[in-house]
Amino acid sequence: MKIALLGKGKTGSKVLENKTHQVIAFDSKNPPTFEKLETFDLIISFLPGDVFKSFIPLLIETKLPVVTGSTGFEWPTQLDQTLKDKKISWIYASNFSLGVAVLKQMLAKLSAAKEMFSTHHTSIHEIHHTHKKDAPSGTALSMQNWMKETCSVTSERTGDVIGFHELTFDTGSEKIKLSHEALDRKLFADGAIWAAEYLSKNPTYGLNSFQDILERTL
Ligand SMILES: NC(=O)c1ccc[n+]([C@@H]2O[C@H](COP(=O)([O-])OP(=O)(O)OC[C@H]3O[C@@H](n4cnc5c(N)ncnc54)[C@H](OP(=O)(O)O)[C@@H]3O)[C@@H](O)[C@H]2O)c1
Questions:
Q1: Which one-letter DSSP state was computed for residue 30?
Q2: What is the CATH number of the domain that holds 142?
Q3: CB within 8 A of 209, min separation 6: which ones?
Q4: 11 C-alpha vs ligand 1 centroid, how far in Å?
Q5: Domain count, the chain
Q6: Ligand 1 atom nearest to CA at 94
Q7: What is the pLDDT confidence band of residue 142, given thresholds at 50, 70 and 90?
Q8: What is the reported pLDDT for 151?
Q9: Nearest Cα to Cα of residue 197 among 18, 61, 48, 35
Q10: CATH number, domain at 212?
Q11: Could you tell me the pTM of the whole model?
Q12: Closest protein CA for atom 41 of ligand 1
C-alpha cells in the first residue's frame, strides 16, 4: 500500500519505521494538497487535533480511506453521514493500542461477573509523562465506562512514562488486578497500520471507531 502519513512527530515517526508499506510523510514544511494526496491508497494522521480538523474537507475531497489517531477536537456532527453518502471509509482512535483493545474485552468479562461477589471496590491508577495535559487519561475514563460503574481513579505524572493503567477489583477477601503498560510509541503506529490494512481489505463506509472494528474481529 502507498500510505500518506500526515504528521511525523513523536508518534507519526514510528509509522515511518514500518517497512511493509510505502510511507511518505507530510508536515508543516511539506503540507498535504489534493494533487499530492491523490496518488496514494490511504492516509494515516498523527497530526495535532486542531490541524487535522482543518484538513477534514481536503481529506474528504480525496475520497481516500483515512486512519486517524489525532485527538483533542470535536468531530463535525454530520461527518459520519457525509462519509457514508460518499462511500468513504475512516477509522479513528484516541488509543491505537491493540493491547488496550484486548483489555476492554477482559474488563467486560469482569464487569459481567461482579454480581457474583457480595461486595467489591474498583479502583484505577494511571501514570503518564509530565507533558500530558489531561488527567485522568482518556483511557482511564474508558476503563471506567467498560466496567459500567464509578471507580476511584487516581493519576500520576512523572518522567517520560508513555502510559500505564492498572485496575484493581477488591472484594475484601481477594483482589483481581489488570494492568497495561505502553513501552514504545511504536504500538500506536502498529495499531494504525493494522487499521489501515483492515480498511484496504474491508471498506467500511462512515466514521468508524477502532474499538468497534476490533470487536468485530476479536
Ligand atoms: N490514537 C493514538 O493511539 C495516539 C497515540 C499518541 C498520540 N496521539 C495523538 O496524535 C497527535 C500527534 O501527537 P504527537 O505526540 O506525535 O505530536 P508531535 O510530536 O507534536 O507531531 C506533530 C506532527 O504534526 C505536524 N504538523 C503540525 N502542524 C502541521 C501543519 N499545519 N501541517 C502539516 N503538518 C503539521 C508536525 O510537523 P512540524 O514539526 O513540521 O510542525 C509534526 O510532524 C496528537 O493529537 C496526539 O494526542 C494519538
A1: S
A2: 3.30.360.10
A3: 91, 92, 93
A4: 7
A5: 2
A6: 1
A7: confident
A8: 97
A9: 18
A10: 3.40.50.720
A11: 0.85
A12: 28
191 CA from centroid of ligand 1 (Å)? 16
| pLDDT band (50, 70, 90) for residue 182 | very high
My answer on whether 168 and 105 are in the same domain is yes
The residue whose CA has the least distance to atom 19 of ligand 1 is: 9
- 114-138 pLDDT, tens per residue? 999 999 999 999 999 998 777 898 8
Looking at the fold, whether 170 and 106 belong to one and the same domain comes out as yes
pLDDT digits (tens, 9 = 90+) for 12-29: 999 999 889 999 999 999
Alpha helix segments (H runs only) across 136-204: 138-147, 186-201
Residue 194 beta carbon below 6 angstroms from any ligand 1 atom: no
Q: Do 77 and 142 fall into the same domain?
A: no
Higher pLDDT, 66 or 142: 66
Both 90 and 190 in a single domain? yes
- Do residue 50 and residue 32 come from a single domain? yes
123 and 45 in one domain? no
Interatomic CA distance for residues 197 and 193, integer angstroms: 6
Task: Specify whether 55 is located in the same domain as 102.
Answer: no
Same domain as 118, residue 47: no
Distance separating alpha carbons of residues 65 and 216, to the nearest angstrom: 19
Catalytic residues: 128, 132
Instruction: For ligand 1, say whether the CB of 55 is within 6 Å of any of its atoms.
Output: no
In which domain, by residue range, is 71 found?
2-96+186-217
* Predicted local confidence at residue 21, as pLDDT: 97
9 grid coordinates: 512527530
Task: With cut-offs at 50, 70 and 90, classify the pLDDT of residue 186.
Answer: very high
User: Is 56 close to ligand 1, i.e. is its CB under 6 Å away?
Assistant: no
